[in-house]
Amino acid sequence: MNNLQAPAAVVMIRPHNFCSNPDTQVDNAFQITAGDPESTRKKALQEFDTAVETLRNAGVRVHVFDDTGTTTPDSVFPNNWFSTHSGGHIAIYPMHAPNRRLERRWDVIEALKRSYRVQDVIDFSGLEEDGLALEGTGAMVLDHVGRVAYTVKSNRADPVLLERFCTHFNYEPMAFEARDAAGREVYHSNVLMGIGSDFAMICLSMISDPSRRMEVATRLAETGHEVIDLTEDQIRNFAGNVFALTGSKPLLALSSRALEALRPDQIRIIERSTSLLPLSIPTIETAGGSVRCMLAGIHLSPRERTIP
């Protein structure tokens, strides 16, 4: 497996005050209100710590940062506010919901600079003042090898900002509309699809325009990916919210719920090259995101020193 697509290290944010974010519930159809707040916080923390241990046991380097604040209920999903790129580049993103903007932490970026070779940090977040958002690798599913940024059109992925990102980081933008059977917009691209080194998981039927649907499928095939076509029910169970990683062997991190939703024939395709690594996070999934959202991949060259 090509490490360019499947990083060997991730950043994760431990949420001490997790809850389902009321500011994002309007346009996130995956989000539900959990039960008792105190019980929810404890369960989420336990799920998080178990996930970290599982990833580390599989050979993935996990850098954990604690969030003890009470104003950032979605901080467990750091992939939306920053991304890293080979060659030593980091991007910082503008967020749609005001309370999600509070998740950006320069101490995390500074820690990465100490342990990885960082050439520059490109900060797009000032464009929030213009009402623009591009929520990182939630809004864009990046093919790091084929250099394509697959992006569902939404209020969390401004087309002008997408073009600006792609020009700077040398990606081909591939934007399209995607809706569920009820006509609701898919809020983030990474719940619709995930890309490994030699396969891609996507619900093609949710792409609204049939011709664009064909273009996306063709582009994925042209860049060397066997397309695993997911159903809308599988998407509702977060089967598209997966992340290819490199541990002691090639891995695909996904939630236990997502794995249960996959068919045996789909699993066989994945397991030709990759071992499935399920993480049980049912409480965290009530916030409308799953395993991919929890993992900010590190595509940087390490220094000799490491961060915790």
From TrEMBL:
InterPro entries listed in its UniProt record: Amdntrnsf_FN0238 (IPR014541)
Classification via Pfam families: DDAH_eukar
Positions in coiled-coil regions: none
Superkingdom assignment: Bacteria
Official protein name in the record: Arginine deiminase-related protein
